[in-house]
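User: Please predict structures.

Assistant: First:
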Amino acid sequence: MFKTARNMAGLPWIAAMAFFMQALDATILNTALPDIAKSLNHSPLAMQSAVISYTLTVALLIPVSGWLADRFGTRRIFIIAVILFSLGSLLCAFSPNLPFLVVSRIIQG
C-alpha cells in the first residue's frame, strides 16, 4: 500500500500533540505540587522525586527510542509509547502514596 499525501496529512498534528503532551506533563506537576503533597501527607520538598523521576526517565529513553523505532518501526513504537504514557497517567491519578506516584511517573516517562 502506498502512502499518499491524504494519509500523511494528519501526521504533523499528531506529532505536535505528542510534543505538547510531553512538555505539559514535564511541567504540570510543579503547579499542583503543594496540593498533591498535602493529599499524600508529604511536604512539597519531599515531592521532588516525583518530578525528577519523569524528567530523568524521558532523558534516558530519548536515545533508546530512536534505536527502538529503527528496529521495530516508528508507528509501532509511537503507539506503545502512547499506551504506556496513558497507563502511567492513569496510575498517577490513583496514586495512594509517594512511592507509587514515583513509579507511575517512571512508567509515564
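Second:
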Amino acid sequence: MFPTKRPVGLLSEHLRLGVCLLHAMPGAVGSLRTHRGDDHVVAHHRADATLTPCQLRSGLLEPVVPGVPHLLGVIDRVECTGGALDLGGGIYHRSHPAAGDERWFATILDADTVTSIVAACPSEIEHADVSVRISADVELGACAVCVSSEAHIGLRLDEVACWLHAECLVTELAVHVARH
C-alpha cells in the first residue's frame, strides 16, 4: 500500500471556502477553472455539469498518492456563479418563492466560534426574526453560514449578514495573527 495523505492542508483557503459553499447551498452552481484555463460547471441537476458539488468535494478530499494525478493538481479556482446572487465581499443572496430570503457566506472558523459570534450580535442590529444555520464541514475545515428570515426583510437581513460575516473575518484574522 502506498503512503497517502489527505490534502486538506494543501487546499488553498479560497478553494476550501468555495467548495464548502457550493456543497452546502441548495441550487448553487459553480465554475471550476483549471490551470490550463478550461472552465467546467459544478452543479446538481444540470446536463452541462462536469461534476456535482459532492463529487468535487469528495475528489478534493481523496488522499494524495505519490505518482497518481490528483484533482488538486488541476484546479486553479472554484467560484459560485449561479443559484444565488453575488452581493460582493463573499456574501450571496439566495431566494426561493416558497421560502424567505437567505444570505450565505463561508468561513474557516469552526461552528462553535461562529455560534459564539452570533450570540454576541449587538441589540442595535435588529435581528429578532433572523435565524442562522451553520453547516460545518470538518474535513474541509470550513463552515457555510446561512442567515435567513421567513419575513422578507431585505436590507435588515443584509445588515445582519454583513455584520456576522465581518465579525467572522476579523476573528479569522485574529486567529491567524495569534498563530504566527
